[in-house]
């Protein structure tokens, strides 16, 4: 008996300690790639088309390693985007608190996935073949049981630990860190109407999903990175898969297309501004708001950078997303610096143009031209250049006919 145990204790693979570590990390990486490439970018947002063989591989892998059917994951995620930071959001730290989402993110997912109305409304277009109906959805947790047996046979006793590590870390990173911390801590590139943030330093573990603010700004983009210092591991894998003919990239968030010369804006150019509004607001912050504030606090000397950086972080959030202390601090800063107050009023006026409801195209264009004229005449350094930037937007190309 002892001879049998000694012979089979480390399974058929009989690896070294570091061998088991490498295999465990590799399996975790494949699982995260399956989540981000298949569940998220291919199925939930249709930003890529994966090869059918790759889709089947990812479905099988995720059935074995997570037990999550495609329809459930996609439906919960789509509802998160549709109702973000509202009471109906399945896993918002703003609603439930950060601690609950980080520690109980998987439970919140399961609770929402069991609602038939969520699956019906948000789960459309996901696989509905024989395998999905009779295996993956019907016996969703059987896959995990099969994985346990396979790991014990192949890796022996260490296989139990490998399985436990995989089953524990994936919900923590995917449901806890991404859905929780990436809606509470980190930096923001874009002024989205939610609490999404970026945490690029953990990109090796979560495959680009940590660039959450970028994703919420451009949800249908296959690439999540937006700055040179941001690395989207999922995007790097997609480029390789595309080169191999295993993926087709459909949509990527592009930079605004500018003509290089300022012209009186027409309705088509205004549409381009509105489509690129996330870039427009970011450009306004970098070229108008921050320089104005820097000039107003330059008398503070070494403390000026700290004031500007703190203000930049606060201004990247919608006011209702800030706590009481942050709102008070921002209000005091604005009250002390009248020019900053003015440029923020101009910024809010620009936003109100594209956020206004029941406004005709003629009225929309007239309001936009009036805003540009007022900004040019304001005498505020930076606003005139910003108006020239807006007036240089090239009209969007006509969509290709099917």
Using brief descriptors, characterize the structure shown.
single chain; mainly alpha; 2 domains; two-stranded antiparallel sheet; 20 helices; 2 strands; disordered N terminus
Q: Would you write up a description of this structure?
A:
There is one protein chain. With 402 residues, the protein is mainly alpha-helical. It folds into two domains: 248 residues, no CATH class; 125 residues, no CATH class. It has a two-stranded antiparallel ribbon.
If strands are numbered along the chain, what order do they take across the biggest sheet?
Answer: 1-2
Distance between the terminal alpha carbons, to the nearest Å?
Answer: 69 Å
Which structural class do the helices and strands define? mainly alpha
Assembly classification: single chain
Rg result: 25 Å
Order of helices and strands: HHEHHHHHHHHHHHEHHHHHHH
Low-pLDDT residue spans = 1-5
Rounded mean pLDDT is 85
Shape: elongated
- Sheet with most strands: 2 strands, antiparallel
Structurally, the number of domains stands at 2
